[in-house]
Design a protein that fits this description.
Distance between the termini: 48 Å
Number of helices: 5
Largest sheet: 8 strands, mixed
Order of helices and strands: HEEHHEEEHEHEE
Oligomer: single chain
CATH superfamily: Gcn5-related N-acetyltransferase (GNAT)
CATH topology: Aminopeptidase
Structural class: alpha+beta
Helix content: 25-40%
Strand content: 25-35%
Number of strands: 8
Length: 183
């Protein structure tokens, strides 16, 4: 039986991608210096607080789901957006394969929204897709989230299909969107 699961406990021998090795990036935006850092288990309470703020008291992803995603290192990247005073005010997460980078979650605390920070997170993740030679970036958005869909369209994403009852909490439909990175 142990042999069946031995691969789970062995170190990964493949060469890691740059995304797998990501630690921190600093950028300036509207006169302030922000930091993008790989999220850790220690950030769980802050991540859940951001969700509650953004989703009016709800947490679409519970602690266990976040822990699972944040602790994955190979072909997953969850990055927090930190202010100059080191406050976590947003995050973006994605997994990627040889061809696709899929953005699973992105959020900015309401007080910090409409400042272009969500766009900065998206541009960062699109750049990560390019660095790993992905051909396209995908994501889903609530059909009612006009602000997010507007941003994604600005960045070049196109609507692909509607996924009926995609969101578990409210059974809202999602629009699947895609950004092609190659001609």
């Amino acid at each position: 039986m142990l042999n069946k699961f031995k691969h789970l406990f062995q170190p990964v021998t493949k060469e890691a991608d740059s995304v797998d090795q990501f630690t921190e990036v600093t950028f300036n935006h509207q006169g302030l210096t922000y930091h993008l850092r790989r999220l850790k288990s220690a950030n769980m309470d802050q991540l859940l607080a951001i969700q509650r703020d953004v989703y009016q008291g709800q947490t679409p992803w519970n602690r266990l789901v976040f822990l699972n995603e944040v602790n994955k290192r190979e072909r997953h990247l969850y990055v927090g957006l930190f202010t100059p005073s080191d406050e976590l005010i947003g995050f973006i997460g994605a997994w990627y394969s040889d061809l696709e980078l899929h953005i699973t979650n992105v959020a900015i605390v309401r007080h910090w929204q409409n400042l272009g920070l969500g766009k900065q997170l998206m541009l960062f993740m699109i750049d990560q897709a390019k660095q790993t030679n992905c051909s396209f970036v995908t994501l889903e958005a609530k059909v009612s989230n006009d602000a997010a869909k507007h941003l994604y369209h600005q960045l070049g994403f196109v609507d692909r299909k509607i996924k009926k009852n995609y969101y578990i909490a409210d059974h809202e439909d999602a629009v699947s969107m895609e950004l092609l990175l190659v001609d």
